Amino acid sequence: MDKLEPKEHPMHGSAVIKTDHANLQARRIVYYILGVLEVLFAFRLIFKLLGANPQSSFVSFIYTVSQAFLSPFSGIFRSAVTKGFETQSVLEPTTIIAMIVYAVVAWGIVKLIEINKPHQNTEIH
User: What pLDDT, on a 0 to 100 scale, did the predictor assign at position 18?
Assistant: First the structure.
């Protein structure tokens, strides 16, 4: 009886390079999207803490765009509100939780992409 050995499929060097390049591009895209989300959340967190005027067009834009990504996490914690003479400072734990969760999800996606990365045979025959 023959021994059952896994068959090796020789991969051309150019195919490995193309696949590796595609994986690198995919990882970069995931981290770029994460970076955009993290910056958006950081602006929101700072604006809320400093009591930025929500009537400002830039602040309103940040609040509107980021709210779409925060909706899965709303209701986990209550926001802490401190009222001052001129501004109202708000600490939104939801934003912090979202920043952490999206970072972990992005890391997980990148790890899945790396699992798909072909292994180069470094043995010398």
Answer: 65
